[in-house]
Amino acid sequence: MAIKHHKPAHAHKKLKETPGAIYLDVRTEAEFAQGHPEGALNVPVVFIKGPGQMELNPDFLAVVEKILPKDVTLVVGCLAGGRSARACEILEEAGYVELINVLGGFGGQRDQSGTVVVVGWRDEGLPISSEPGERSYQALRAKAGF
């Protein structure tokens, strides 16, 4: 099944209307700790090694596969929509079938001049949290046996 792409308000509506749907936040642990969609799980798809230097998280798929069944609806978001699109591709290749990439992510998508072209989850005024707890990457890695 094709990956769907929804703006934050529509993604939030889908989460509320779909039993068992989960928001998978693929940003870094630091980004997640600064604020994330309420109820989100954090499994970073990449690690940032320096300005413009990203490295694929070698455990991304393994952790997701241990904690989430392949038939669950996953709403996947990052900061602006790029990393989440890549995460959706990885998940689709692994057999996940209900994938929604959040256009604009948490912080909004910008054009080359820096103008916001898609408002993000935070600026849409959708529910957010800054409590990582059992939804943090470290807790999920432990749950997955890593």
In brief, what are we looking at here?
By secondary structure, the chain is α/β, with parallel strands linked by helices. It has helices at 8-17, 29-33, 60-67, 82-93, 137-143, and strands spanning 4-6, 22-25, 36-37, 41-42, 46-50, 53-56, 73-77, 98-102, 109-110, 116-118, 128-129. The strands form four sheets. The protein has a five-stranded parallel β-sheet. The chain has a two-stranded antiparallel ribbon with strand order 3-11. Strands 5-6 form a two-stranded antiparallel ribbon.
Keywords summarizing the entry:
Oxidized Rhodanese, domain 1, two-stranded antiparallel ribbon, single chain, 5-stranded parallel β-sheet, 146 residues, alpha/beta
Task: Describe this structure as you would to a colleague.
The chain has 146 residues and is α/β, with parallel strands linked by helices. It has one domain: Oxidized Rhodanese, domain 1, CATH 3.40.250. It contains 5 helices and 11 strands; from the N terminus they run E-H-E-H-E-E-E-E-H-E-H-E-E-E-E-H. It has helices at 8-17, 29-33, 60-67, 82-93, 137-143; strands at 4-6, 22-25, 36-37, 41-42, 46-50, 53-56, 73-77, 98-102, 109-110, 116-118, 128-129. It has a 5-stranded parallel beta sheet with strand order 1-8-7-2-4. A two-stranded antiparallel ribbon has the order 3-11. The protein has a two-stranded antiparallel sheet with strand order 5-6. A hairpin with a 5-residue loop joins strand 9 and strand 10 (116-118). The longest helix is centred in the middle third of the chain and has 12 residues, at 82-93.
